[in-house]
Design goal:
Blueprint: E1 8-12, H1 18-27, E2 33-37, H2 49-65, E3 70-73, H3 76-91, E4 97-99, H4 102-109, E5 115-120, H5 122-127, H6 129-137, E6 142-147, H7 151-156, H8 163-173, E7 183-186, H9 195-202, E8 207-209, H10 211-225, E9 237-241, H11 246-256, E10 262-264
Parallel strand pairs: 1-2, 1-3, 2-9, 3-4, 5-6, 5-7, 7-8, 9-10
Helix pairs in contact: 1-10, 2-3, 4-6
The structure holds D-glutamic acid.
């Protein structure tokens, strides 16, 4: 198979990364995709760095064995903890690695935003990765970070556009850390599901960042630069998980937008 027609390998701790996969499919409809959701070990947000590095490394090896021409870490928590290790593994095969944080940090650093808020899992916030990445590029920008651990279970249990999501969001977004922000990054791949609720809370007063679009656009541009874009009219989509329950199947549909066939595979 020609290198450019090999699949893009994408992984996440579970189904959340499908919000990124969906946007990649929309912007790059000729690309074959291979997705791995580590549903057996979900959530990564509460795990130690060592464990996240171990799981991310195993998944990367699996995606490389399946001939991925690029790896997308579609998980903020895995990016915060294991980006260096995933890049080292992929480098051995000369495969580029994309993550969900660097393109967003770059975009923010070169806009007019002055005071940026970030909401994410405990682990992502504890790593200060957004703050570090943005301020490395533009030290004039203030970054306010807030861990919002209740949002993942609220989304997974389907309590969105609901009194529960409303109360949880209001409680978090009214936190005094976020009072003077001019833009907000949704730093978790689950959060695009509540994008409209967050926008509604702010009533257009601040900019709410659409991470999947920024990430997928970046990948498109970079694959083009590397002459790695596919023009295949018959792309193949493969979705693997490390554990399958009816809840995961339901979530996959919610995050990807259509019914997909999830295949269980034991790679650990
Ligand atoms: N997908 C993860 C992220 O983007 C959140 C879910 C988890 O904690 O595993 O950070």
């Amino acid at each position: 198979m020609k290198e450019e027609d090999q699949p893009i390998g994408i992984f996440d701790s579970g189904m959340g990364g499908l919000t990124i996969a969906k946007e990649i499919k929309r912007l790059l409809p000729n690309e074959s995709l291979i997705y791995f959701g580590d549903s057996k070990h979900l959530p990564y947000g509460d795990k130690s760095k060592e464990v996240i590095i171990e799981y991310s490394g195993q998944i990367t090896k699996f995606l490389l064995e399946r001939e991925s021409k690029a790896i997308v870490i579609a998980c903020n928590t895995a990016t915060s903890n294991a980006l260096k290790e995933v890049k080292a593994l992929a480098k051995e095969k000369n495969v580029p690695v994309y993550d969900v944080i660097s393109p967003v940090a770059e975009k923010i650093a070169f806009t007019f935003n002055q005071n940026v808020g970030v909401i994410a899992t405990k682990s992502t916030i504890a790593s200060h990765i957004y703050k570090k990445s943005i301020r490395k590029l533009n030290r004039h920008i203030e970054v306010q970070e807030l861990a919002t651990p209740l949002l993942v279970p609220v989304i997974e249990e389907g309590f969105t556009n609901h009194t529960i999501s409303d109360i949880v969001l209001k409680t978090y977004l009214n936190n005094k850390k976020l009072q003077d922000i001019d833009s907000l990054i949704l730093g978790c791949t689950h959060y695009p599901i509540i994008l409209n609720e967050v926008k509604h809370f702010y009533q257009n007063k601040i900019q709410v960042i659409d991470s999947p679009f920024i990430v997928a656009s970046y990948i498109k541009q970079d694959l083009g630069r590397r002459k790695l874009l596919s023009y295949n009219s018959d792309p193949v989509y493969k979705f693997y998980v490390s554990d399958l329950t009816p809840t995961f199947a339901k979530l996959a549909k919610k995050f990807f937008g259509t019914n997909i066939n999830l295949e269980v595979i034991n790679i650990f």
